[in-house]
Design a protein that fits this description.
Blueprint (H helix, E strand, L loop, with lengths): L1 H8 L5 E6 L4 H7 L6 E5 L7 H12 L4 E5 L5 H10 L3 E4 L5 H11 L18 H4 L4 H11 L1 E6 L2 H5 L1 H5 L6 E4 L1 H7 L11 H16 L3 E4 L4 H10 L3 E3 L3 H17 L2
Parallel strand pairs: 1-2, 1-8, 2-3, 3-4, 4-5, 5-6, 6-7, 7-8
Helix pairs in contact: 2-3, 4-5
Bound molecules: 3-hydroxypyruvic acid (3PY).
3-hydroxypyruvic acid binds next to helix 10.
Length: 259
């Protein structure tokens, strides 16, 4: 994952992945065979429970691709479940303040001389396999290897984005344009045509780059993903399983219903 982000920083191509809203080992395995740098398991809005998340983390990591998990909130117990499953990165929605970002970092880090405030418990049974490591190796490297991404997706978050970006341990800021537009009082799906959202997007991108962090943006098509990469974002998805299914099957049904 980090390699792909460094490649993007060097402007040699984006760090690209897909987004899973459905559960299923075979779905994750199939999607992870398509050449992505990462596949994100969406436990915020997807139909993916704890057990399904564990299975998908295993499916994706055993394909040589980085599993990223988006959780539903920022509570330490949610973070612990995902990291112990073996996520290579965690995405936390709705991070709005520096204090919240600091608390997320504390929950993700094992206590160590570099992270004295870390509070992650030491019982990761399954995570080492997702990194091809033994338990000891995992404990010694997880603080450096597991990446932390927070979503900037509200007006308050944008107002605090420079402070959030300054937090040590936060690796990436990721814009959720739908929630951002929604928090500003607009219809979420209109985000691309709302000047206030676009201004906020520029501010988040600049704050991330100035702080030396990776910056990502949600996209529902390869065209939007390419556009965001050319704007300076490092990390982009190009759709989601449900988008692919409804677009392809919807088109097929429209064609056949006209016979
Ligand atoms: C958003 O667009 O708000 C997201 O969080 C993407 O899922």
């Amino acid at each position: 994952l980090r390699e792909s982000l460094e490649r993007a920083k060097a402007q040699k191509g984006p760090s690209v992945g897909q987004w899973l809203e459905f559960p299923g080992y075979t779905l994750a395995k199939t999607v992870a065979s398509l050449g992505e740098d990462w596949v994100l398991i969406d436990c915020e809005h997807g139909n993916i429970d704890d057990n399904a998340m564990y299975l998908q983390v295993g499916a994706i990591s055993s394909s040589g691709v980085s599993p990223i998990v988006r959780i539903a909130g920022s509570e330490p117990w949610m973070i612990k479940r995902v990291l112990d499953a073996g996520a290579h990165a965690i995405m936390v929605p709705m991070c709005e303040t520096k204090e919240q970002a600091e608390s997320i970092v504390r929950a993700c880090k094992y206590p160590s001389s570099k992270w004295p405030a870390g509070v992650r418990g030491a019982g990761a049974m399954f995570a080492p396999a997702a990194f091809n490591q033994n338990g000891r190796e995992y404990l010694l490297t997880a603080n450096e290897n597991v990446m932390i991404c927070v979503q900037i997706e509200s007006r308050t978050a944008v107002e605090n984005v420079e402070a959030i970006a300054s937090v040590q341990g936060i690796d990436m800021l990721f814009i959720g344009p739908n929630d951002l537009a929604s928090s500003m009082g607009y219809i979420a799906f209109d985000h691309a045509s709302i000047p206030e959202v676009q201004e906020a997007t520029k501010r988040v991108l600049k704050a991330g780059l100035d702080a030396g962090k990776y910056v990502g943006h949600f996209a529902l098509s390869p065209e939007i993903a390419a556009q965001k990469y050319h704007q300076g974002f490092h990390f982009v998805n190009c759709g989601a399983d449900i988008v692919a299914i409804t677009a392809w099957m919807g088109t097929a049904m429209t064609t056949l219903s006209q016979l």
